[in-house]
C-alpha cells in the first residue's frame, strides 16, 4: 500500500465519522421477524472490526467507494479494473490484484449472462415522450401545488411505462444520465486510442 496515498487519504474530508452502513429490510423480513438482517455499524465500529490503522482504514473506505463508482466500466471490461488497481489505487501485490479480478469476474458473469438473455430484448425502449402534471394538496386551508414531470416510455413489445418525478428527482435522473454518458465517452475514447496505438497498426 503506497504511503503517499495513505497519507493523502488520511487528510481527506470526504469520509466522515458519522457514516453508517444500513441493511435493507424487505417485505419478507417484515413477515418473518426471525430472519437475519444486515447489522448496522458506525465508522468507528467498522474500523475496530477491520483491525487496521486509521490511515489504512480510511484508504480502504475510499478504495471501495472509488470501485463502486466505476462499476459500470469494470463490469463490461475487467481489464480496466486491473489497470486502475495498479495505476490509480497503486496496488503493487500482483497476487491480490489477480484474486480481486477472479472474484470480480466470477460474481459479474451471471449478471452479464442475464443481460445477454433473449428475455431482455423486449425491454428495449423504442419511444419516449413527456408531459407536465400539477399535483394539488390542501393542508390547513393552504393549497400547495407541486409540478410533476411524467416520462412516458414504450418498449419493443408495446408495453407502456409511465414514471412521475418531482423537479429534484428529475434533476437527479438527468445527472445520472450525464454520468453514464461521460463513462461511455471515456470508453469510446479509450477504445479509439487503443486502436490507433503504434502496436495495433
From TrEMBL:
| Stretches for region Disordered | 1-41
| Residues covered by the COMM domain | 124-188
Q: Where is the composition biased (Low complexity)?
A: 1-40
Name used for this protein in its record: Valette, isoform A
Lineage at the top is: Eukaryota, Metazoa, Ecdysozoa, Arthropoda, Hexapoda
Amino acid at each position: 500500500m503506497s504511503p503517499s496515498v495513505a497519507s493523502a487519504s488520511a487528510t481527506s474530508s470526504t469520509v466522515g465519522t458519522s457514516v453508517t452502513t444500513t441493511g435493507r429490510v424487505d417485505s419478507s423480513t417484515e413477515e418473518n421477524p426471525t430472519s437475519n438482517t444486515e447489522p448496522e455499524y458506525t465508522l468507528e465500529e467498522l474500523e475496530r472490526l477491520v483491525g487496521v490503522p486509521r490511515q489504512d482504514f480510511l484508504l480502504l473506505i475510499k478504495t471501495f467507494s472509488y470501485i463502486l463508482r466505476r462499476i459500470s466500466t469494470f463490469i463490461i471490461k475487467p481489464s480496466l479494473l486491473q489497470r486502475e488497481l495498479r495505476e490509480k489505487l497503486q496496488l503493487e501485490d500482483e497476487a491480490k490484484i489477480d484474486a480481486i479480478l477472479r472474484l470480480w469476474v466470477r460474481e459479474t458473469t451471471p449478471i452479464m449472462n442475464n443481460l445477454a438473455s433473449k428475455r431482455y430484448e423486449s425491454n428495449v425502449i423504442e419511444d419516449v415522450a413527456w408531459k407536465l402534471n400539477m399535483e394539488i394538496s390542501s393542508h390547513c386551508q393552504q393549497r400547495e401545488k407541486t409540478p410533476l414531470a411524467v416520462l412516458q416510455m414504450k418498449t419493443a413489445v408495446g408495453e407502456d411505462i409511465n414514471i412521475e418525478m418531482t423537479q429534484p428527482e428529475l434533476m437527479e435522473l438527468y445527472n445520472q444520465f450525464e454520468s453514464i454518458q461521460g463513462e461511455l465517452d471515456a470508453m469510446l475514447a479509450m477504445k479509439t486510442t487503443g486502436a490507433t496505438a503504434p502496436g495495433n497498426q
